[in-house]
Amino acid sequence: MAMDLMRDNFESMIDNVITGICFMEYENGQVTPFYVNEGMFRMLGYSRAQGMRLLQKIEMNIIPEDLPVYRQGIYDVLKDDGAVEVEFRTVTGSGGLRWLHVRGNLYSREGDKYVILAVIEDISERKSVEEELRQQAERLNILSEAEGGKILDYNVKTDVMVVKSSKDYDLSGEMIQQKYMEDFDETMIYEDDIAYFKSIFRSLMASPKHETIEYRTKRFDKDYTWYQVNLTSLLGPEGYVTRIVGRMINIHERKLKELDLLLRAEKDALTGLYNKGATKQLIENVIQDSPKDALNALMIIDLDNFKEVNDLLGHAQGDQVLVDTANALNEIFKGGDITGRIGGDEFVVFMKNLKAISNADILAEKIVRNVNYSFDYGDREIHVTCSVGVAIYPYHGKDYTELFKKADKAVYTAKANGKCGYRIYDAATTMVYHATRKKEEYNPQKGMEMNRSIEDLVMQVLFEDKTMESALKSAIELITVKFGFHRGYICGNDSLPISHTVQFAMSGYETGKETAAQYELKKVVGEMLYETFRGMTIIHDYDLNVVEMRDYFRSEGIKSMLYYPITSHGEFQGAVILEHHEDVQLEFRESEMEELRSLMRVLEAHILQIGLMDRLQDFVTQIAVFDNLDSYVYIVNADTYELSFINKKVLAATPGVKIGNICYEALQNRNTPCENCVLRNLKKDDPHSRCTEELFNYSLRAWNRCSASWLECKEENSLALINCIDISEYFIG
Fold first, then answer.
1. Fewer C-beta within 10 Å: the chain N or C terminus?
2. Residues 6+ positions from 347 with CB-CB distance below 8 Å
3. In this structure, are 274 and 416 located in the same domain?
């Protein structure tokens, strides 16, 4: 009895240790595990039943490149010369990779039958740090071997700057500056550039990133000289920035030529912006000097209905509109951005060193909002708005001509979709490209086939975009492109929180500006379809018995459509409609229909602005939506900071975190709420409030882009949804 109790306690202890313990039998070249503790299964994210099945074919779970290491380890253990240690990669239950350190030795032998005991440890975090340090060493080596210029090496911990100069400069060798930031010497930098330089340097100290700046500094007792500095902040093994390294290049001659260009009638006489020639030249100069990993954007701003102002109100009023537009652009774009007028009512803006493509979205939306004028003419009003087209460097082009061509096409698309809006050229595939960060392997033809799920992308758009209609438009575009439709739109009755039809059309299927009558017709069509079909349905033109419906399909050129009604408390509110215009049978696999159904539910919940957990049809579906996202999802009580829900990805990465835990204790190892908590920026008086921050999660040891929005906004016990996407690779790179 005592022995049985001792054995039970021993097995319980083995099951609860953090490391994996495995007994394997080796016979005739075949390895068969016969005892594995629970720690091993927790480490790999499998249930015991799943894990034991997979381990029967153990080599299937090891990365092919690492199989020789594993097999050599088995061979060495069988020699019985002592413990053998090997390291290799395996696949977890969630599809991720884990580095395992395995220490094995021969436990017993009977004839040709061997028993091997292995102790397994997860060393993924150590391997990640080693790889980061290796890459940093490579970057430092490249910098140190670069010819010409000065090499900067700043130690954030000690506040010491080391400057190494080449023989091309006045003083070669090494210069050390103690207390560099504490006793910052402002006399060495031109007065107008001091604040800019300090802000960039502090941002590099706050998080790992790359910055390219231009500023003027003194060379001993000489006049100020223009330099370009490429700076990179490096993450130390502690998890924060420890060094900033860079290369400083003399660009004085080129900068003087640029300034000379500006002095030679580069300004537009009416607006004071750069003229067409100067705008093009300045943009080409920036592109030529842009580092390989730079992210820039070219915008074309074209005024809508400007000709009416000139023809009906006179050229003086038209000139005032142009001046007001230039002033609006100058308010939005400052610093190093380039703003020019290149035609009668056409403007160009080139934004340098974007942090993310979403920055271009935000600023384009601001242009559309600010460039909006109304004038009385008799008994009617003349509205002047603008359409904006955006092309991203280097995704859409690597020279001015190509970027301008793509931005111009995006302007045309914006105008064809109703004017008074903006488009990013090929925005759906661009977002997938950016989100997946596969810069070298990207193929535009396969842009939607990458590993990032469409649900994940749509959720990211909905919870990160600042305005609902912009988010819905991007989401409809992603779904339309992904599933091969030609047009997609959302419309509904006046109770829906959207002011007009949210729509997207593929190139060649644009409908032009939608009239009030067309909008009303869409609502009527949506209600008629609801009376017939009720739920999500694929509808073909030949299936329609109602004459009005058949006529509508024919007039719009629709061959088939996916129809999803939006309802609230059993009442029809509107519809999501995806149109297909080719005369082929529209068919989807069952898995694709489930994916579409899930996406429609998410859109419906977002449109109605009530909690996703209340809108999805059943609990199983709710968990599936969140659990299958490739991001960390939490629902948090904003008043008590208690975790009300965590998805499977959170559990896999942090098994110790549980529902009911206090989030800052469980996730950040703190005793008090975080100073930069994303919840602090959610407004209790605004149920549509959203906030996005980039934060370091100590429990995950990773940088995350955290987006928060209300699930339930109440005076007390408000629930917030936090969706965190791991951006460590992009953030550090």
1. N
2. 273, 300, 301, 302, 325, 326, 329, 339, 340, 341
3. yes
